[in-house]
Write a structure and sequence with these properties.
Layout lengths: L1 H18 L8 E5 L5 E6 L9 E5 L9 E4 L5 E3 L6 E8 L5 E9 L2 E4 L5 E2 L4 E3 L10 H25 L1 H7 L1
Antiparallel strand pairs: 1-2, 1-10, 2-5, 3-4, 3-6, 6-7, 7-8, 9-10
Helix pairs in contact: 1-2, 2-3
Length: 170
């Protein structure tokens, strides 16, 4: 009976890994085309964030959206700013991946605003949801797999040595 108890969690973990292998976490990026109020949002693997919800905030710190829209199939969105000031564009794919960028409009000219998350001069900001951003993709997968196996190992130990396990063994 103990052999079956110890085998179930690793088998379940292996099945879980196989079923979600295509669902890897990844980051997002958003860049503004210098001189225009046009942005391009993409995942860190280069795929565009196509047909995603877009919210434009003006001024940039406002909580309610100034207006909303949707990216095209290339992950691009553009609009004509009505007045000078700081704008923030947020792109959300509805599945937990989001990107945003802040830019400034002065006298009708658009320029990317620098922030700690931006690469100065490129107008690109990375605001993704990748929890293993400092690691490569393969290392992130390895760490995630290790976490899953560790979790199932703890569950196995709890079942084996917990109150229910002691009653069966005595």
């Amino acid at each position: 009976m103990k052999i079956k108890t110890l085998c179930i969690p690793p088998v379940a973990a292996a099945l879980l890994l196989v079923s979600v292998s295509a669902c890897r976490a990844h980051g997002t990026a958003c860049r503004i085309f210098e001189g225009t109020a046009a942005v391009e949002a993409s995942y860190d693997d280069g795929r565009p964030m196509a047909f995603c919800d877009v919210e434009v905030y003006f001024p940039a710190g406002e909580k309610a959206a100034y207006f909303t829209g949707e990216t095209d199939r290339s992950g691009r969105f553009s609009f004509i700013p009505e007045s000078d000031g700081e704008y923030r564009i947020a792109v959300d794919d509805g599945m937990g991946h989001a990107a945003s960028i802040v830019f400034k409009v002065e006298k009708g000219k658009v320029s990317a605003k620098g922030s700690e998350k931006e690469d100065p001069g490129s107008g690109q900001t990375e605001t993704g949801t990748c929890i293993f951003k400092g690691l490569g993709r393969n290392a992130g997968i390895l760490v995630g797999t290790s976490m899953i196996f560790g979790l199932f190992g703890l569950v196995s130990l709890a079942r084996l040595y917990g109150p229910a396990g002691r009653k069966k063994g005595s």
